[in-house]
Amino acid sequence: MAVPRASLSGKSPMSNVRFAFVLHNHQPVGNFDGVFEAAFQESYLPFLEVIEEFEDIPISLHTSGSLLEWLVAHKPEYIDRVRELVGRGQVEILGGGFYEPIMTMIPSRDRQGQIRGYSDYLEHLFEQKIRGMWIPERVWEASLVSDIVSSEIEFTVLDDFHFRKAGVPPETLTGYFTTEDDGSVLGVFPGSEPMRYMIPFHEIDHVLGHLRHVGEQRDDALVVFADDGEKFGSWPGTYDHVYKYGWIRRFLEALRENRDWLTPCTLGQAFDELEPRGGVYLPAASYREMTEWALPTDRRPEYEQLRTELEHSGRGDQANDFLHGGFWRNFKAKYPETRDMYARMMEVSRRLNDICVRNPSALADHRLYEARRELFRGQCNCPYWHGSFGGLYLPHLRGAVYGHLINADNQLDAFERGARAEYAEVAAADFNFDGKPEVRLFSDRLVAMFTPHDGGHLYGLDVRAIATALGAAVARRPEPYHQKIREGLSAHSGDGLQAKQEGLDRCLIYDDHQRHSLIERFLEAPVDADHLRLGEFQELGEFSTGDYRYATSRSGESVLLTMSHTGRLGARSVTVGKTITLTAGSSDLAIRYRLSDLPLERPAHFAVEFNIAALAGGADDRYYRDAQGTRLGRLDEHVDLDATLGIDLVDEWLGIEAMIRGSESARVAAYPVQSVSQSEGGYELVHQAACVVPTWTIPAGTGEWEVELVMTFDVSRAEKSGRIDSLDAQPSSATT
């Protein structure tokens, strides 16, 4: 029998503690379908089955748009069951950004667009007014208030950590507060960090003891548990604990049995029934662990040592109140790959906004609609950071975000130029927000981004037909948890995480450069694939990092970027010049090298490094192939060729063949770029890119030397398989 809403919101005379159970369910944009399915079977479905039995226990539920779209498409019966709980007043639906963006990372216009769009979608789906929202990763800055309130949201929930950093005494964090920006007022609930660590891991009596203690300290207290729903079944080891051994059922029974002093409620009910504890202006923060992950890697040991010293001296509470880690935005400084992806996202957002401002009557055009939805998907936070969970090191998440941004750009091109237009253009600006100009060559087929000031590298390379970013590789760099691996982790770690492969300590190899392409080096001698992988080679000069002069031009249907740098090679000043050409309607990127004033007394060994991302290793349908069409090995293997005019990288699943051809025979080495990273399931080796390095030995006495390279990106496999969608297609049923 359904319980009337009024019976859930009332407070018994003997009750002095309210408890708000807030769940956040999320899967990233681009995650594997099998991961969605496993999380559904292990967490979302069994939790629903249990909570359905406890009609008198209300909860607040947030489901990210990327997960909800999957549930609507694949599990409509789940949606129907949640809708029934909403209808009987047991479940309050929380809104938020549609595709779980870090709100402080995106422009104000996109914040409001994501929040309003998701509220509309949820209200249509569940027939409930959306009043509250979830802040992704609880990343907060005060300027969010105006956009949230403008989007018709009344309240949100953060961590008590935010409030403690504002100097609010912990014992007063037993209700909600108001905060303000530019005259807009928002209710903010502090989520309890102790409850976040206790639920669902501690004994029920321990959890109840904490709640009772709070009630003894203050009348009419509210305690908020707000955390990931995946803790209830999907996290390693939790399924049996929560469901098989009955933790969640016993906890809900305990809530029911203690109704004489403990009242479960939703955030909305607490907001309606309680007066605010006061006003507060919260500092820029996230949950405590996130601020620690945002610190520079080399400063983390200092922070952790200081925190440990304070705790051992009995000042742990003061450390919790006043010790603060880093600032979320510094992930863009800590990881240049995050900055580059962020800059690409911002460029697409700006372009879309400019078109809408110039053409307000075109806002209903399906191509702009699709571009906006693809942009919002490309703002999903997961691959923009890394800690214990963030997916910067997960290529499929990074690739998905880039893919959606490329799709958005394609839709904008279709609107402005027509879907079949052939063109090639060049532009120079500070595209990646480093204070220096970059150059973009872009056409109907390819987008190529260059950094003249930093080695003249190719740092972005998009194949537009299949919405794939081949230049989005991540460098191998130190992470704090690598020390655990060095200290002997091979099968288990002290924090409960496991190594997914043996020998990870031997894979802790770090790069001294970003994994771009067109990185030129003069080597002491040719180097094989394994020594290149280990970084065991001697580079002569600083051509890989030099400041290249550049000029752009046009020749007919082609655009050109010419760069040159003069540096020391032994006793001589040597000039490396390279000209890159992109032609309308062509899938080729042509590179011409000209070396001048080479040493005459000895041979020169000239190498060019390419890093090709997005092509997975570890599968037989992803492989190297020589210029004669012979398979050489999978993309996660080493290849050494003594003399060849080219090498191909083939990904049959993705439907692309990336071919590199040269006018002069070269020795070619290829190897996988693999990082050791941490996730919820443990420590693992992750394939980031395939590195290909052709090396030419230029005879002594040459003086001047040239070579022409052509990179060709053949997507005929994708065309035949139907993976390439028409830009003229009408939008799908999902709305933003």
The count of β-strands is 28
The major β-sheet equals: 14 strands, mixed
| Average pLDDT reading | 92
**Computed structural class:** alpha+beta
The dominant shape is elongated
User: If you compute it from the alpha carbons, what radius of gyration comes out, rounded to the nearest whole angstrom?
Assistant: 28 Å
Poorly predicted tracts of residues: 1-14, 490-494, 726-736
Architecture of the largest domain, according to CATH? Answer: Alpha-Beta Barrel
Count every helix, treating DSSP H or I runs of 4 or more residues as helices: 22
Helix fraction? 25-40%
In words, what does this structure look like?
This protein has 736 residues and is α+β, with helices and mostly antiparallel strands. The protein has 2 domains: 5-284, 7-stranded beta/alpha barrel (Alpha-Beta Barrel), CATH 3.20.110.20; 482-721, Beta-galactosidase, Chain A, domain 5, CATH 2.70.98. It has 22 helices and 28 strands. The strands form 3 sheets. Strands 15, 16, 17, 18, 19, 20, 21, 22, 23, 24, 25, 26, 27 and 28 form a 14-stranded mixed beta sheet that branches. Strands 1, 2, 3, 4, 5, 6, 7, 8 and 9 form a 9-stranded mixed beta sheet that branches. α5 packs parallel to α6 and α17 packs parallel to α19 (395-417). Mean pLDDT is 92; it is low at 1-14, 490-494 and 726-736. This is Alpha-amylase 1. Pfam families: AmyA-A_glucT_m (PF09094), AmyA-gluTrfs_C (PF09095), Glyco_hydro_57 (PF03065). Keywords: Carbohydrate metabolism, Glycosidase, Hydrolase. One of its GO terms (biological process) is alpha-glucan biosynthetic process.
